[in-house]
Structures are given as structure tokens and as C-alpha cells.
Fold each of these.
Amino acid sequence: MGLARRCVLCAAGKGESTLEFQTLCIHGGSKKYDVTGAVSVPIFQSATFAHPGVGESTGYDYSRQQNPTREHLEALLAGLENGTDALAFSSGMAAVSLAMELFAPGDHIIASDDIYGGTHRLFFHLSAKNGVTFSLVNTSDPARVEAAVTPRTKAVFVETPTNPMMQVTDIAAVARVTRAQGLLLLVDNTFLTPYFQKPLDLGADIVIHSGTKYLGGHNDTLSGFLVVRDPALAGRLRFLHKTVGACLSPFESWLLIRSIKTLSVRMERQQESALRVARWLRTRPEVEAVHYPGLPDHPQYEISRRQTRGSGAMLSFATDTAETAERILRAVRVIQYAESLGGAESLITYPMLQTHADIPEAEREAKGITNRLLRLSVGLEAAEDLIADLERAVTSGPDGGDRVKT
Ligand SMILES: *Cc1c(COP(=O)(O)O)cnc(C)c1O
């Protein structure tokens, strides 16, 4: 068992934990499947596993509980996040929903006031029905988090940077509050991935991912993850995972393993292009504000630099009028007007009508999610082509066609 992996590690002269991140993206994982030397992880397309004898098991019984392909992916991601265990789900929302199963009626959770729309819907429509209450606060101010703690508070749920306003929360500062008060700290790390940010190292207890985004990276697969360090918490989550059953299939686990091999290369290139696009947007008279943590005038630029290795490739911007925003959406050609983010294909969204449509209007407007705000996920196309596409769109006629000069 594990011959191929041992050779890689011997050649590097290192234990797995000391390998560089980009090497781990390729060679991390459980390798428990590895009896043939297969360089690509096999897809164990089996729902169940035969027992060698009474009371005996190969280590696998039934794929809802564990499957060798998924196990490899989970070990891979646990290693990348510096966790001890990771659980793979059929979507990001399945992962967040499962985390909510840790709480009981009467429990109170403090959450970032600019969270993903689906998470907001889960909290206020399902978890609230189950007797869990929420306070939404601006978690980029740790004092507000501390002030919101009540005797019933059990956890703090943070997204950083937030979607779509790109607000950054100081994870270590919030972790000091949660540690002192005995609360769980959950951090949604979808936007930056462990390549740029490792919340467990900063004091978080549970890291959440929509693997549909950068980890999957190709806009073709839904998936989600929870990653933890504490073995007792991992045990509780494992019990819930096998009980609820929203686990990732063997084939989709394999797609994720394949994608993660290129995670570091994709993140670097997408970030480089995002910074170029952000800088270009700032020069445009039709653009009033650009929200990107990699710009030095971003309000949490210093915190972002301190706790991350990079700012990622998500940005949002406010146009001068709603007409300009709609014109851009109609006229872009290389960039596609579609939900989701993090993939090779650049995507633009209108948060007001899409991801945040279920959030009450007053709450949405107060956060800056207006009819002039667009969110852009910068993909792997050439930055020049993305900028040219936006330039053409922003100067196009009202119907999205090229403006006729008179
Ligand atoms: C997309 C997303 C989710 C939900 O993930 P799905 O894979 O779409 O279920 C959760 N959090 C963030 C930050 C996201 O972007």
C-alpha cells in the first residue's frame, strides 16, 4: 500500500506536512487506494463493499459512510487547510446545512451581515424554523461581534471576504472573542481557498467551502466541504454526515481531485488578472466604486495583507446608473452573465436580482447591494480580452449593441 506516494515523498526528502502547498495539491490525499501504482486516483464507483468475513471490513462498508475516492479527496483538502479531517458534500449549501445540525433550539448564532444569499435563506427560513436565532453584524469590527454575544450564543459565522461587498474580517481577532467565550468559529473560505487563506491557522474551528467555485474551478461540478482540526468535532460531523447523506459522489470527488492539482496556478493567474481589471475599472468615468481587497484604499487592506497570501479574483463595482449596469450585462460577450464564480470562465452577476434576491430590499440597499452593483468573477481568459469586453460593453448603445456614432 502507498508505494507510489512513498517514492514521491522520499524523493522530496520530506514528510507530507512539510511539502509546499502546490506539491500537496498534486500529491496530498489518503492514497489508501494505491495498490496498483495508478497515478490518477481510481473512481470507486461502488455503493457498497463486501466483507471478507463475519465482523470484518476492508475499511469500507457503504459509500454514504465512506468511499475510497471521496476519502482521498477529503484527506487532500484536510491537508491543504491544515486540518485533521474534511468532509465532502454534494454542494456548498449541503455543507452549511450540515454545520447547522450542530445547533439546537434556543441557540443563537452571530453571522456576518453580508453573507452569501443561500446561507442567509438557510438561516432565516430553515434554521430559524428549528429554533435557532441569528444576529447579523458587521464582523469586520470584532467589537461588534463581542457586543452581540448573549448567554445563548453558540457560534460566530464569518465570510471573508464577503459576497458581494468584499468586506474583510480579521479572523484572529474574532477567534480571540470566540475562544474567550467558548463559542465555535465557522469561516466560509470559498472566495480565497486555502491557497490564499487558512482560517484554522488563524483560530477558526470549522472551515466551509463551496467547492463548486475555485476548488472545482471549471464551472462544471457542485460540491461543498467542512474542514476541522479538533478530532471530537470531526467525530460529531462524521456522524451527522453519514446520517444526513448529502455526500459527494465518487465521480465528482474525482473531478475535484483533478481540479485541485491546478489550484495554485489558477489562483495566481486569476488574481493577477483581477487586479488588472480592478485597476482598469477605476479609471472609468462610468464606475463609481470598485470593491477589491487587493487595492490599497480598500478599508481592510492591511488586515487582508496580514491574514492572507493574496486577495483572490472576486470583485464588485458600482456603476454610475442602473442603465450602465444593465448595459454591461447585455453587452458582454467573453464574460458571461451567469451566477457562480471561481471557474475558468469569467462570470458577471447582478447580485440584486440573483444571489441576493431573497434578502429584504431595505437590508440589501443598506449594504450597498443596489441596482448599480455588479459582481465579477475573473477567470482564466487573457486580462486584455476581459478589459476589452468590459470597455466595449460600457460604451455600447442602450440595447447592448455597439453605439452608432452620429
Ligand atoms: C456558492 C457559495 C455557497 C453555496 O455553495 P453551493 O455549492 O452553490 O451550494 C456558499 N458560500 C459561498 C461564499 C458561496 O459563494
Note: The radius of gyration is 22 Å.
Amino acid sequence: MAWAGFIKIKMLPMTNLMLVSILSSIFIVTLLSFPSPAEADYLYHVCPNTTTFTPNSTFQSNLNRLLSTLSSNATRPSGFYNATASSRTPNDAVYGLFLCRGDVAATDACKSCVSTATSDIVQRCPTEKQVVIWYDDCMLRYSNESFFSTMAETPRLFMWNTQNATEQTRFNQVLSTRMNEVATEAANDADKFATSQGNVSGLVSIYSLGQCTQDLSSADCNRCLRGAIAQFPNCCSGKEGARVLYPSCTVRYEVYPFYQQNSTSAPQPSPGALPPPLPPKGKVK
Ligand SMILES: *[C@@H]1O[C@H](CO)[C@@H](O)[C@H](O)[C@H]1NC(C)=O
Ligand SMILES: *[C@@H]1O[C@H](CO)[C@@H](O)[C@H](O)[C@H]1NC(C)=O
Ligand SMILES: *[C@@H]1O[C@H](CO)[C@@H](O)[C@H](O)[C@H]1NC(C)=O
Ligand SMILES: *[C@@H]1O[C@H](CO)[C@@H](O)[C@H](O)[C@H]1NC(C)=O
Ligand SMILES: *[C@@H]1O[C@H](CO)[C@@H](O)[C@H](O)[C@H]1NC(C)=O
Ligand SMILES: *[C@@H]1O[C@H](CO)[C@@H](O)[C@H](O)[C@H]1NC(C)=O
């Protein structure tokens, strides 16, 4: 049995100090019986054409070096790497990072996602200097301006499942508790990643995830996650699943397990608690 649904993507690019809302596209996401873990599912990218570089310039060669450095560090245990490629001309420096979803860190899925991202981005944004691209399994960002250790909440991407949750009052209570837990745990986690599962009823569980880029401080990660979580009622109220993606952090919840539950970064069940049910093999409701 395959699950099929619509996910609408809405994004708010930052144009100076004005937030513009654009309903950009509608995706049809079908989760097939045996999804390949190596697939890099593209979500969205942002690269304003107002900051561009000259092809074959020093900036371009620095960018190429940066992308190759990022790609060759995609197997790091943390699933995160930041790098700088610079030359004698200071204004040609490129700063970049990638972040894999915590549960796929150090796996082929991470490696493949980063590799896809680094080759895909030069097609999608051939001359843009400031870029963010999101996939299911990873994100990649670079800029001609250093952004390390600085929390960024724009551009932002909202995605939601059009299915409405049942028992909304209880659903929202469980969601709120779990998201709160995820924010606290991720902010204090060495890899800035946490997941949590909570049950709404005997039949419905909420799986939630929060993650920050690892250059952020605990305090900034916490602020970023809480800001993103606070978007859920605006963007995605009552929906069965939703994501808010910022350059510095991501939050997501679904009624099916969308992350590997045996990940070492995932919180362990407390003593005496029943282990979470095994993820359904090859199907999601
Ligand atoms: C930049 O993008 C805008 C909107 O997509 C487009 O109208 C404009 O022509 C583009 N400018 C350049 C220089 O490509
Ligand atoms: C980055 O690029 C933009 C657009 O070309 C430019 O205005 C800005 O000064 C650059 N920043 C740095 C640090 O060179
Ligand atoms: C950039 O360099 C490549 C290979 O060196 C060349 O084929 C291409 O024409 C150059 N492009 C520009 C815009 O100069
Ligand atoms: C990575 O980011 C940190 C700040 O979080 C910075 O101090 C460090 O220089 C960066 N590393 C590289 C290789 O750019
Ligand atoms: C979800 O609920 C909203 C508002 O209650 C309604 O307009 C919409 O049609 C519902 N969507 C589905 C897929 O049932
Ligand atoms: C799910 O939560 C409800 C309400 O808290 C509880 O009664 C029930 O036992 C839980 N079910 C499972 C399978 O944990």
C-alpha cells in the first residue's frame, strides 16, 4: 500500500526588509514501496540573481574548490562541514557548508546527497554568489560573505501535507510537547540534532525532528528552532505533516517515520518505556 499526497511549497524570500509571500509550486510526493536511501530528493533552492560573479573568474575557481572540498568531506561522522576557499584577492573568498539530516550522517545517503547538491547547484545557479539548496537528506549553502556562526532565518521554506490531522486538539498538544522537546535536545546535542516520537492515539503517532547547522551556538540553535516551530500554526495549522526550513535550522513532523529510528543521535526511550514500534517496512500510511 503506497501513500500519496500533495505537499505545497510556500516560500518567503527576503527582499531587503520586506517579506514577500509567493506560492511557488506544488509538488506531488509519492512514497513508493521501497524508496532508495541513495536518492537525493530536491526540495527547493534560492539564489538571488542580484549577486552574481563573472564566469571563469577567481571567484568561480574558488567556488569550484569549495564545492569539491565539501563533497570530499561528506562522509564525516557529524554529517556537517564548513569550509572557506580564498585566494590572494580577498573579495573572491567563498564560504560554504553542507548539513545532512542527522540520521543519515556518515551514510551513503549523505554522501550522495552532498554530491548531487554540489553538481546540481552549478546548473541551477550558474553565476550566483549566494545560494541555499535544500534536499530531503541534506542542504548546501555558500556565499561570498562569511556567515559561519551567524543564525539565518531567511530565506525560508514552508512545506505542508494537505491532509488534515484528526483529533486536532490532542494532535496539537502532542505536537507542541514533542517539538519543545526536540528544540531543547537539539540545541544541547553535540551534532545539533534531535528526533522525538509521541502518540496521539493508539493508531496515530507524531514523528518530529529538529536540527541546526553545527556552527551555531546552543543558544542560537534554540532560538532558531523555536522561531521555526512558531511558524507551524501560521503555515501549517491542523496539517498531518509540515516542515519549516531556514538556512540555519529545520523542523519537521509527520505521522509516519521519515527518519531512521535506530540513529545513535536519536533519543533513546527512557528506562521502562516500551521501544518505539518498528517503522513499517516499505509502506507508510
Ligand atoms: C533576475 O530575476 C528576475 C525575476 O526572476 C528577472 O525578472 C530578471 O530578468 C533577472 N535578472 C537578470 C539579470 O537575470
Ligand atoms: C558579495 O557580493 C555582493 C554582490 O556582488 C557585493 O555587493 C558584496 O560587497 C560582496 N561581499 C563581499 C564581502 O565581498
Ligand atoms: C571559461 O573557460 C572554459 C574552459 O577554460 C571555456 O571553454 C569557456 O568558453 C570560458 N567561458 C567564458 C565565459 O569565458
Ligand atoms: C567553520 O566555522 C567556524 C565558525 O563556526 C569558523 O571558526 C571556522 O574557521 C570555519 N572553518 C572553515 C574551514 O572555514
Ligand atoms: C482541511 O481542513 C480545511 C479547513 O478545515 C478544509 O478547508 C480542507 O478542505 C481540509 N482538507 C482536506 C484534504 O480534507
Ligand atoms: C498513546 O497515548 C495514549 C494517551 O496518552 C495512551 O492512553 C496510550 O496507552 C498510548 N498508546 C501507546 C501504544 O503507547
Note: The pocket of 2-acetamido-2-deoxy-beta-D-glucopyranose (ligand 2) is lined by residues 51, 91, 129, 144-145 (CB under 6 Å).
Amino acid sequence: IRMENITQISREDLEELREAFNRIDIDNSGYVSDFELQELFREASFSLPGYRVREIVETFIAGDTNKDEKISFEEFVSIYQELKSKEFSESFRKIIARKDGIRSFGGMSGISSEGTQHSYSDEEKVAFVNWINKALDKDPDCSHLLPMNPQNDSLFKSVRDGILLCKMVNLSQNDTIDERVINTKKMSTFTMTENLVLALNSASAIGCTVVNIDASDLMAGKPHLVLGLLWQIIKTGLLADIEIGRNEALIGLLGEGEDLDHLLSISPEELLLRWVNTHLTNAGTQTIRNFSEDIKDSRAYFYLLDQISPKGEREDELAVIIDMSGLRERDLNQRAELMLKQAARMECRQFVSPHDVTSGNSKLNLAFVANLYHMHPSLPNNNVDPDMHIEAESREEKTFRNWMNSLGVAPYVHHLYRDLRDSMVIFQLFEKMNVSVDWKKVNPSPYPVLGANMKKLENCNYAVELGKEAAQFSLVGVGGVNLNEGSSLHTLALLWQLMRRYTVMVLSDLGEGQKIGDQIILNWVNTTLTQGRKNTQITSFNV
Ligand SMILES: *[C@@H]1O[C@H](CO)[C@@H](O)[C@H](O)[C@H]1NC(C)=O
Ligand SMILES: *[C@@H]1O[C@H](CO)[C@@H](O)[C@H](O)[C@H]1NC(C)=O
Ligand SMILES: *[C@@H]1O[C@H](CO)[C@@H](O)[C@H](O)[C@H]1NC(C)=O
Ligand SMILES: *[C@@H]1O[C@H](CO)[C@@H](O)[C@H](O)[C@H]1NC(C)=O
Ligand SMILES: *[C@@H]1O[C@H](CO)[C@@H](O)[C@H](O)[C@H]1NC(C)=O
Ligand SMILES: *[C@@H]1O[C@H](CO)[C@@H](O)[C@H](O)[C@H]1NC(C)=O
């Protein structure tokens, strides 16, 4: 870039360009990626013929002398000059402004259609930063990063060395990561990448879906990916003890005349809703159906807080009497603020701002409630039969479940056996290991009310057929009916072989086709198992 190019632009223009550039350069790296620029061009093409845009982008990429696919401010200015046609630069600026608008007003997240432009929610960023600041406050390994400023983009810079993510995974599920394997000193790109890979692998081990994200995305601090991963990690931790297998006191939520099987089959989110509604019913007020529309007026929250606040019954606890006068406040934002002040007295002002309540942000409100549950469960113990005992999830079951969830199967598998009863997830697993599934033979959900189980059973029969014929698994004595009944023995027999096939496939890919024997995998599984539960070992895959 020659200097005379730049001096042709007026000082005002230059300042404006600098501002625009800084807005695209979300992480303040001093560069924007060429793909980001291309997206902007693509969007602007209505005012400039398509061939012109392609030409410009190609010229630019060809001329990107250092081929780093990054565009510095100076390069940006020269592109702008090439495009000085008034019409074009105006629409270009409009798009830059819009991009910024999405970011500062929030309300959107995830991948937009076509994946051309990624937006993210500012509310989520603020909520997660506050949460992490508190959660890792005392961890000396994070003192160089914390506290982060929730108002700027320091989160996206702070995740780069991987330490913060590793710590958050470990916090979500105790002891997932060994202290000694995180690099904390002599940080270089290499050690940072190691940490990030460790964080991704561990996140996947606790059931987060990480198929669309790699260490370089995190290193680059791509906001939508960082927030997406953090949400999964935080949510896993928040919902961890809302599962009957892990917390038998939840049986107290059993409705009258309801059988335990039903309670076992519902997701943690639904259980949480039921927990809220149990308390609302006890308070004699209306129940809620979700964490968006129905909580906007703070009414449910006031009553919930009042029900669960400490009553000073134990010697070591101070009673917190909830001030309900906020219910009379007309302005919903102020009412939400008064409610959150009460939550703060219980040390539970987390995740939501008054605006997140009144706008019904379901993600953040779920987190707020999950944390309330975590801090003040106050479960009723009316229905608990002392003889009722629920088998806790075993280490192997959890390993299978996390494995399939990390591959991004849908719907998310909460219960290994119950959630596989229609074999939909099994079909997805087959596809992931190149066993082709004839979807014409599969009955899709939702199933008809009448005969639903017949449809599911047909699916299971087909899954077993695929396993025996297409995948050549050894499935002696396993029938569709066994999977449909949720028989652990038979389901595990199939899952072992699926996971083995998958692991061999991945390992061979890594080892450039080198054959990976059962022995290597068995050793790995053996080690994994013995770390957890001493009495489980496997000697072979033969079933
Ligand atoms: C964010 O603000 C803090 C001050 O609160 C500052 O130290 C930090 O450098 C800022 N980070 C970014 C990425 O702007
Ligand atoms: C994790 O560890 C903390 C402190 O060591 C403990 O309070 C908490 O109950 C543990 N959580 C689980 C799920 O084991
Ligand atoms: C992970 O959590 C456990 C307690 O739950 C703690 O003892 C251990 O030090 C943590 N590991 C790291 C790397 O912070
Ligand atoms: C929440 O429930 C209300 C009815 O109370 C409904 O109108 C709304 O669509 C629901 N929202 C979601 C996200 O399910
Ligand atoms: C699976 O199929 C995909 C696409 O059909 C192919 O690229 C890949 O190499 C296959 N993998 C194996 C292990 O056969
Ligand atoms: C797994 O470990 C047990 C006990 O340590 C051992 O007897 C068994 O042979 C091991 N299995 C394999 C496949 O290495």
C-alpha cells in the first residue's frame, strides 16, 4: 500500500473508516478476515454488479501479498478507494452500520441463514462474563484474565489461551480436567493451542457438541462460536444435578397418580419447569409454561423466591423474608429490578438483567432459574417412598451418552435407554460412520397418538437390520423389541459396536489408514473406566 493512496482521502473520511473498521474488527486484532469483507461485499452487491464485486475481491485476494487472509486498516482503506463509486460506498457503510446494530442491540445469536453473517447476543456476553468472573474469582491460574469487563470484548480475547475454557469445563463437571495438564506458564501459540484442544475434548466428554468448532476459531475469538460453546458448558453444569438419577430428592416432584417412569423420561429443562410450578402451586398462584412469555411480568419469580428463600430453620442459616411489594409496581422493568434485588439477597442475582426478564430471553432465564434451584432447591419430600431407589447412571452409560451428544445427534440424549427407544439417534450414528440409512424406511417423529409405539418398534427393527446386515455387527439375540423396551443389556451391545466402529474410523483417519486394533481401543476404554469406577472392566468386544 502506497502512502499517497491514503492521503487522497479526507481526514473525516479516514476517521469514519477507522470507526467502521474497528466495528468489524470485533476482537481488536488490528485485522479483519477477508471472508468478513467478502460477506460485506456480497451483501452490497445489489448496488454494484456482481461481476464487479467478484473482481474486486479477487484482485484483493491476489494482491494480498503476505497471503495471511487478513486485512489491515491500510489495506481496507485502499479497497475502499477502489470502490469510491459513491453509490457503492454508501450501501457498504449501511451494511457496516447494520452489522454493528445487531451486535449492540442483541436479541440474536447463532448462525444466520446461509451462514453468511454471524451475529451474537450482547446480553449473553454480559451474562456469561459476570458468571465467569464470579465462578473463577479465586482461581490463581486465571488472575491474569479476571475480572473481565462485560461492556467490551475482553471475553473474546481472554478465551485465547484456553485456560479459562478448561477451568469452566472442570467447574461444570468436577474433576474433568487434571490440574497438571493445563499449560499455564511460558505461553506460546503452541501451548495455547494445546489448551484449547484440551478444552474442546473435555467439553465433548461432558456432552457438549463441538463438531463445528476448532481451536483456531477460539484462538481467533470468533464471538458466536465462543458464546455457543460457553453456553453449552455453563448449561451442562447448571443442569447437572437436575436429573433424578443423580438426585433422588427430585422424586418429590412426582405428581399425584403419576408413575415414576414418566418423571424419569422428561428432560432437565422440563423438570426445572416442574420444580417452579410445584412451588407456584404451593403458593396458590398460576403456573408457567415456559421461561419466556410467562415470566416477563416477574410475578412467577416473586412467588418462587418467596417459597424457596431460607426460612431460618437451620441454625446456621439466616432467614430471608422476601419483600413482595414489588408486585404492585406498574412498570415491568422496575418491577423486574425490584425482584432481582430480592434475588440478590439470596445471592442469586445471576444471568439476567431486568431487560432480559421483561424481554423474556428464554436462555438466560433458564440459567437464572437453574441457578436458583442449585442454590435453594427446597424440594418437597411428600411423595418420597423410602424404598424407592433409582439406578444412577453408570460411568459407561454416561460415556456413551456424552459421546453421541458430542457428535451433535438430535434430539439431545438425556437418558441413554429411554431416548433411544425409537432408534432415531441410532440412525444418525449409523450415518456418521458411513452406513447408509434408507430414510424412506424410517417412521419420522412426531408419531401418531394411536400406534406410536408400533412406529417406534418398526424403526428399531430396521436399526437392528442395518446393524446386522449393513454394518456386519454381531447382534445375536438382539431384536428391535429389546431396543424399543429400553433394555440396557441389548442397547449396550449395539452401542459398544457403534462406538468401536466410529473410533476405529476416526483413529484410522488420524493414522493415515494405519490399522487400529481392538487392543488399542480396549486399553483406552479400560483406562477410562478404571479412572472412574474400579469394578468395571471389559476384556473384549465380543458380545
Ligand atoms: C476492556 O476494558 C478494560 C478496562 O475495563 C481494559 O483493560 C481492556 O483492555 C478492554 N479490553 C478490550 C478488548 O477492549
Ligand atoms: C463439585 O465440587 C464442589 C467442591 O469441591 C462441591 O461443592 C460440589 O458438590 C461438587 N459437585 C458435584 C456435582 O460433584
Ligand atoms: C477441577 O476440579 C477439581 C474439583 O472439582 C479440582 O480439585 C481441580 O483442581 C480442578 N482442576 C483444575 C485444572 O482446575
Ligand atoms: C410461552 O408460553 C406462551 C403462553 O403462555 C406462548 O404464547 C408462547 O408462545 C410460549 N413461548 C415459547 C417460546 O414457547
Ligand atoms: C465416509 O463418506 C464420506 C463421504 O461420502 C467420505 O468422504 C469419507 O471418506 C468416508 N469415510 C470412511 C471412513 O469411509
Ligand atoms: C482391562 O483391565 C483388566 C484389569 O486391569 C484386565 O484384566 C483386562 O485384561 C484388561 N483388558 C484389556 C483388553 O486390556
Note: Residues 488-510 form the longest helix (23 residues).
